[in-house]
């Protein structure tokens, strides 16, 4: 085999990906007025890896009224479906059920539109999941913050923490009715902040975080949400509080005024 052919073969191996799973909906309900939980089940989840709660996944959204056969054909031959990034909220290996939470904002986005109308027997494409980003619980104090888009990853982190953990969790929600039950350690103080219009910038999380009496010892963070908020908080944590970068999981999940494809392009260009 020539060097050229070896390079070509290696490139193919890097770019080849397994076909997405086509998951079938078992149940769906409103977890809160602005959050929808969809539970998937079936043989399509055979071999699903354990320990991936909080990991990223890619969802491929069928068109309204599209048949499963046509959708499967598009996955293999194109044109490709719309893809959106979501978080594995929970995979139950015993019942073989996968839960994913969707922010409900009507028909503004394809994933929200799908989740708002889907019923048992519905389907979508699934790729992933990745390893969770927040897995090492060896800090003296934790700071968790999320807007609705990041509540699933923050909730997974809180539920996985040792029961003697201490810290603060801040959730910015659209309505007071969007509070969720989260099995956080008793030493984590949870704040629920209401910001009724997510299309407008908010400094409520940042204001509260800056007002916190900063603890002694090692601090770790699990923070995600709108990119402008994330950019400001990253600057505060790293430059002012000098939290080491390896102890800060902090990620911009979306940006006001941009759809996901535009936001991902902006992130690749160096913006948050």
Give a summary of the structure in a few sentences.
The chain has 272 residues and is α/β, with parallel strands linked by helices. It has helices at 3-15, 68-77, 110-117, 151-160, 204-211, 227-240, 260-268, and strands at 21-32, 35-41, 56-61, 82-87, 90-92, 97-103, 123-127, 141-146, 167-173, 188-194, 219-226, 248-254.
Chain-wise SSE layout:
Blueprint: H1 3-15, E1 21-32, E2 35-41, E3 56-61, H2 68-77, E4 82-87, E5 90-92, E6 97-103, H3 110-117, E7 123-127, E8 141-146, H4 151-160, E9 167-173, E10 188-194, H5 204-211, E11 219-226, H6 227-240, E12 248-254, H7 260-268
Parallel strand pairs: 8-9, 8-11, 9-10, 11-12
Antiparallel strand pairs: 1-2, 1-7, 2-6, 3-4, 3-7, 5-6
InterPro entries: FAD-bd_FR_type, FNR_nucleotide-bd, Riboflavin_synthase-like_b-brl, SIP_FAD-bd, SIP_fam, SIP_rossman_dom
GO molecular function: oxidoreductase activity
Family: Belongs to the SIP oxidoreductase family.
Explain how this protein is built.
Residues 18-136 form the FAD-binding FR-type domain. Belongs to the SIP oxidoreductase family. InterPro entries: FAD-bd_FR_type, FNR_nucleotide-bd, Riboflavin_synthase-like_b-brl, SIP_FAD-bd, SIP_fam, SIP_rossman_dom. This protein has 272 residues and is an alpha/beta fold. Helix content is 26%, strand content 30%. It has helices at 3-15, 68-77, 110-117, 151-160, 204-211, 227-240, 260-268, and strands spanning 21-32, 35-41, 56-61, 82-87, 90-92, 97-103, 123-127, 141-146, 167-173, 188-194, 219-226, 248-254. Strands 4-3-7-1-2-6-5 form a 7-stranded antiparallel β-sheet. A 5-stranded parallel β-sheet has the order 10-9-8-11-12, sandwiched between helices. Strand 8, helix 4 (151-160) and strand 9 (167-173) form a beta-alpha-beta unit. Mean pLDDT is 91; it is low at 1-15.
